[in-house]
Specification:
Elements: H1 2-30, H2 40-45, H3 59-66, E1 71-79, E2 82-89, E3 94-98, H4 110-121, E4 126-132, E5 149-154, E6 161-165, E7 171-175, H5 177-184, H6 187-190, H7 202-229, H8 247-273, H9 289-293, H10 306-315, E8 322-328, E9 331-337, E10 343-349, E11 352-356, H11 361-368, E12 376-382, E13 407-412, E14 419-423, E15 429-433, H12 435-449, H13 453-456, H14 460-488
Antiparallel strand pairs: 1-2, 1-8, 2-3, 4-5, 5-6, 6-7, 8-9, 9-10, 10-11, 12-13, 13-14, 14-15
Helix pairs in contact: 1-7, 1-14, 7-8, 8-12, 8-14
């Protein structure tokens, strides 16, 4: 058995050593530079305030001119420094309507894309660079509704490349040159995106699952071999506790004993990130968002024009850059966002309208109870982040998530033990996780990123610890690569005996 374990470790290690080294090195880069994304705060910061005196036609006119089915999302934003309504139907298709003229949408041409890019660049020159359906920076499934994408190269100091939606004309992604460059050594390399050909690619998915599984076998057999060969009492003839005299083997043995467990943990959690065979998919019913809303903005809206809403917000000292028409508990309201993604809600109150910072907790409790056909076990108002609802930095793959406080955590008594978290500022369902999804959170997110709120709050201490452990894993993989090269080197031909 020992011989079998040794041989499994030898040959899987030869196959995996360089890839493991790449994973450790690229993981260090990803601590500081994430895969390109346009976060809500970045997007809103690039928009002008909605202050034009002629803003805007009534939402009903935009709905009539959109020419799409049941509208589930309606927002007023700016595209190319001009107000536009952006509408989305039940299929996820999106269109934009000019907010000043109400002109129905058409195909977004290069000229419109350039206007959007120039507005995003704040006066910097720009160059149109054609269209792409998908490239190495646009694998995210959230971009599917906007493909193909217009590519605009900006002449700003960061040499930013922006991608513009062919459906709405909005800038949907920005990627400065430095971010793109570091990503070749970071996320693009870490996730083996050179093997990915489309947003949903089962071949890429199962390739990573298989490779990660081999890596788990390599690390486990290495740990077992290392313990077997280490003399905890007594020493070998060479006077050491390790039998190896050659430097690379000696260091590989000792580094494996120190860093083998962390290598195994990170490779295993990387495997779990791929959700093999859907093991962490929700097992029960998903929350019924439509029942919580009780209507859509296509059918229910406040009897208040956009200009009146903006004036009401300005009187409260809030300069809105985007308005969203929404429905919650059958009540239409407007969610306003400013340049730093702070929010206000505009609601009907008596004979008038009020601007509020958050929804009453009793309202959210009432609508949350409709999310699932099961009794609610508990409600908790969160003033601090918990182990499931928390905020990550921008470099993280979750850096674009909105995680505001306070939040309402709702625990259901269903067979899958579902938890949901509602943003009390917007009334939006931000997170839903049943028992299997929470297990996935521990086996992937925690083991891979050390992202408990208490760990994240340590700031640089967490970063330093991860870098030191990653460096140890990199050194372990590097010694394995040296050993592999020697093992695979062609044997020298034996010289004929001369007697």
């Amino acid at each position: 058995m020992k011989r079998t374990v040794y041989l499994v470790h030898r040959w899987t290690g030869i196959a995996m050593c360089l890839l493991m080294a790449i994973w450790f090195a690229s993981g260090i880069v990803m601590l500081f530079v994430g895969y390109p994304k346009l976060t809500p705060a970045e997007r809103l910061a690039a928009l002008p305030a909605l202050e034009r005196p002629d803003c805007c036609v009534d939402p009903a006119q935009a709905l009539a001119g959109a020419g799409i089915g049941q509208v589930t999302s309606l927002a007023l934003t700016s595209i190319g420094d001009r107000p536009h309504y952006v509408l989305q139907d039940a299929t996820g298709a999106q269109v934009s309507v000019d907010g000043i003229s109400g002109i129905p949408p058409g195909a977004v041409d290069p000229e419109q894309a350039m206007r959007a890019g120039l507005a995003f660049a704040s006066g910097s020159p720009a160059r149109y660079d054609g269209t792409v359906f998908e490239d190495r920076w646009t694998h995210a499934r959230g971009l599917n509704a906007h493909r193909p994408l217009h590519v605009i190269e900006l002449g700003d100091a960061a040499a930013t490349r922006v991608y513009v939606s062919s459906a709405t004309g909005q800038v949907v992604l920005d990627a400065p040159r430095a971010e793109r460059g570091w990503n070749y050594a970071g996320a693009w390399l870490h996730w083996l995106y050179m093997l990915k050909n489309q947003p949903t690619d089962p071949v890429w998915t199962w390739t990573l699952v298989a490779i990660s599984a081999v890596g788990v076998f390599t690390s486990i057999t290495g740990i077992v071999n290392g313990i077997w060969r280490w003399r905890f009492s007594g020493r070998y003839r060479n006077g050491s506790r390790t039998p190896y005299r050659e430097a690379a083997m000696r260091w590989h043995h000792m580094l494996g004993l120190v860093f083998g467990a962390i290598l195994c943990t990170w490779v295993f959690s990387g495997l779990m990130s791929m959700n093999p065979a859907g093991v962490f998919d929700a097992k029960g019913a998903k929350p019924d968002v439509a029942a919580m809303q009780g209507g859509t903005p296509g059918a229910l809206r406040l009897p208040l024009g956009a200009a009146d809403v903006l004036a009401l917000l300005l009187r409260e000292g809030f300069a809105a850059r985007e308005l969203e028409w929404r429905v919650l508990d059958g009540e239409p309201f407007i969610l306003a966002r400013d340049g730093i993604n702070d929010t206000r809600i505009v609601r009907a109150s008596g004979q008038g309208f009020v601007v509020a910072r958050a929804w009453p907790e009793e309202t959210l409790r009432r609508i949350a109870a409709r999310a699932l056909p099961w009794p609610v076990a508990s409600f908790d108002r969160l003033e601090r982040y918990d182990a499931y609802y928390y905020l990550r930095d921008q470099a993280s793959m979750y850096g674009g998530n909105e995680r505001r406080l306070p939040a309402l955590r709702v625990v259901f008594g269903d067979p899958s033990a579902t938890w949901i978290h509602l943003d009390m500022r917007t009334g939006q369902l931000e997170l839903s996780a049943d028992r299997s999804q929470r297990v996935g959170r521990w086996l992937f997110n925690l083991l891979h990123s050390w992202d408990l709120p208490a760990m994240l709050s340590t700031g640089w201490l967490r970063i330093v610890a991860i870098i030191l452990l990653s460096t140890g894993g990199l050194a372990l993989s590097a010694t394995a690569a040296i050993i592999a090269c020697r093992r695979l080197r062609p044997a020298r031909r034996m010289q004929p005996f001369k007697g």
